[in-house]
Amino acid sequence: MTTDAIQLRITTDMGALPAAIEFNYQELKGALEQYLAKFDGLMVTEDDIRSAALDRAEINRVARTIARARIDTKKRYLEPFEVFEMRAKELEGLCKAAEGKIAEQLEAFERQRMERKLARLEEMWAGKVAATGIASRHWDLWFDEQVSTKIKGCWLNKGVSEEQAGAAMDAEVSRCVELVGAVEQMYAAADDETREKARREIAATMDLQATLRQVKAFQAERDALAKAAAEAAARREAEKARQAVEAAARAEAAAAAHAARLNAPAAPAAPAPQPAASQPTPEEAPEDDAGDVMVAPVAPAKPPKILSFTARITGTSEQFQQLREAADRIGVAIQRI
To answer: Model-level pTM greater than 0.90?
Structure first.
């Protein structure tokens, strides 16, 4: 049985269907326009609110009558079509179910064809790159970034023969050899990280100038980070040194205070307090033989006691310099022994 015999034939006399649904359109339109004309430019005042509301309700009633007639007529004429549409879609579903089973098997064969062709193309690519003598890491990058996309996106198509794909591979290999050679020569003296960055950029862009810009930006960013880290480390070391000097100064002061307490003589017993004698006024002060007033001498103030002790201090030259500067500020003499 051929599909020529499977045809949908409409048995209903479609010619019997009206070309248009006629109704008193002109008559109704004229009556409506005449009725609604009196509302053109109508200004409702507070005294007219009730009558305006009644007019609005009447207009809405007429509109609902027309809408109801439209909906009922549409439903009447669509009912037979909806039955027809439902049955036609059921038949279409039978066709799609059968077609889907065939499509699944055809897609499985297509996947197998593409897998076999992909394996042959990858083997072809491996043979071409091996003949160049360039290290495999370059080709791995190039394949991941460029060739793999072209194989899967274009060269696997049925319209591209393996000979055409091979010619395209030759062009890719030549371009890769040229660009990789240029990058390797330019960054031969660079560090491993920079060389790897250059290789990845040339594989991703196939643009030598773009690669140079990206590598330069990468180096600038890395140098800036290294500089910032070094400055932060220097600040930390300086802070540690400052804290060490301050700690040494505190230790020295504590040791000096302790030594002073150990070396100080025992204090004599304090005499019993005597009532304070009032200082005689010039009129009360005794006079000598010449008649001059005699004033009791005032005892001079005692100078502060100078202490000295020996201690061993360990630190860097910078810390000793900071310690000496701190001692000079507070008037403490430091002598080398």
So the answer is: no
